[in-house]
Amino acid sequence: MLIRHPPAIPTSEITEENAYATRREFLKAAGFALAGGLLPLPSPGLRRALVPDDDKLTPWEDVTGYNNFYEFGTDKEDPARNATRFRSRPWKVEVTGEIARPAMYDVDDLLKGLSAEERVYRHRCVEAWSMVVPWTGIPLGRLIDRLEPTSRARFVEFTTLLDPRQMPGQQRGILDWPYTEALRLDEARHPLTLLVTGLYGKPLPNQNGAPLRLIVPWKYGFKGGKSIVRIRFLERQPRTTWNIAAPDEYGFYANVNPDVDHPRWSQSRERRVGEFFKRKTLPFNGYADEVAGLYAGMDLRKNF
Amino acid sequence: MTRAAIVTRLVKPLLSLTAVLPGVGIVFALATGRVDGDQVEFIQHGTGLTVLVSLFLTLSITPLRHLSGWNEAIRVRRQLGLTAFWYALLHFLTYVVFDQSLSVRDIAEDVGKHPWVLVGFASFLMLVPLAVTSTSGWIRRLGGRRWRRLHSLVYPAALGGVLHFLWLVKKDVRTPAYFAAVLAILLAVRLWISRTPRRARARASASRQDPAAGALGPAGEEVA
Questions:
Q1: Residue A261 and residue B36: Cβ atoms within 8 Å?
Q2: ipTM of this predicted complex?
């Protein structure tokens, strides 16, 4: 059986250097979007330059029609079905905890002046399916720098909107709402960690976590909180939603790891959506060169 | 037309048509690009649900006969049971081919490590001898009593199928819980029937002439 193993993507391919160098031109081109009150979006030309050769983009229909967002229901088709009338503007984000000036921001003000980039990332769900997605977003580290965490801040927590009227999934106690996720501060500051505002060059669809979600490409998808309303800086590691729901199944770190199985299923392989045969799962989802250093000396079996 | 003739000429052909519908639906949805996301998972969920529904219908024949006295229902049971088997085979093949790329080592490891896979695997294996011995020839060869004892494997197979479903769900167990509830009702009705002494005795004597018409026999007409 022929199973192709794509090579790990070097950092340089993730944001190509000339794309980075010409980011101001692209921003100018996207200026009209800003004027219209939307977040900056890249041009299609830029996107093409950023696609790694071996990983074909997962079609828009799959990315927006098949995903987990339990706030809108537990079936993969539920988010697309139940999020159509979700209001992602106006949108307030509370920034609080161990930072210089805790405050409530309008989402557009919070991100004003931070340039959005397109990043093509592999996306690996803990359920052993995966996609390749062209996200648009702002490296979270740049926002964190601007927010000036105090010296005590060691973790960042992200809270999803709690609104059972708009989010019918929250009318049932499937999870401990509101959904929270968290990262260690150094993980949050890692250049690959992206605060996502768009998809395929368009504003982020409701079902994918509009207006603001997190993407941490070397971790299982559930680490990326959606429709974020609060960013909180903490001294101690907070509890996170899936970890509360099933601590033996979903760890705090949740780094993609083919050698550490979910208690009920294998993580050694994954199905790329659109393909029939499974392919091997790569350590840290193929981003080991970039992120393995964050976990030097840690027992990844224990800290799963 | 007698009721038996209605079953043979009308109900059975209609059931055969119905039995291929889930398969046709799955192929149609895939071929016309209606399936967003994991296509193999779509096939597996579709075939898996069909297996459970067919098994439940198979298991409902005996209670139906006993409660309604509509004994002709027995004539469709083999067909229902085989429908469950064929969909289970498809379900199993997608796992072996697409999930495990036909690697015996990987399958052994997966089955050994993951109880929900083991339970599903075992349930499928239990259905195999039932499908093989579903013919009238095998009923004669085994004799009614031994045949019936063998075919009581349908109970652990059905329980295993539901457990397999419950175990694979991440958090929202509503759908598998509905299936578990239906199975519990079906089994409870059987228990209640078997504990009702007079009716049970009358039935036992009636079925002595026709071994296949007993608690677990297949369609009776070929043997009777």
A1: no
A2: 0.80
